[in-house]
Amino acid sequence: MILTDLHIHSCLSPCADDTMTPAAIVKAAKEAGLELIAITDHNSARNCPAVAAEAEKAGIGFIPGIEVTTSEEIHCVCLLPDLGKAAAFSRWLDTLRPGIVNRPNVFGRQTVIGSRGSRTEERELLFMARRISVNELSRAVRQYSGLIWPAHVDKPSNSLYSILGCWPEDLDMDAVELYYDTEPAGIPESVHRLRCSDAHRLWDIKGGYPLPLESADFAGLKKYLRGE
Question: What is the mean pLDDT of residues 160-168?
Fold first, then answer.
């Protein structure tokens, strides 16, 4: 078993704490005994390179990702095989932005951490919905060789079940993410269940969630979820 947490936000997400820097996240993950983490900020992968560098130094597996908000206001975790694919996918998502400027005093700061520790602020508000449906997003992620699942389906907002009230028959997902101990009805038995912290603060990063992966990387996760 490999201890994982595949849904963590950094200080790039306006709703995350400013202390969620790449170095601090990896330090907390190391102390918690995690072996594989994924950074999934809202609609952007711009902090993934800095976290990847810190994770490599700490000997922790890392997968770059993004939590995308669809036009239905559904949150989906999208994981990519490498930083190049993540950056390309992130740039493509930028073309679907609504163009709303962030107000840090209202929504929170959106800090981009550079590879050498530089700090800049993302101007546009990141957690706004993108102009893409959940089914369109699933197809797009496949074009970038990624994995996708609906996030925290048992939460009362921004979840598949809070928006649609069911698991659509034509929904193409690699897994489903549960946050609480209760599971909504109607999720196909063939769909892998995942648990993730959805961490927005350092103290949210705890003991992780064990998965029977052959390796602590994207390839290991993909083989577990899709048999490939």
Answer: 92
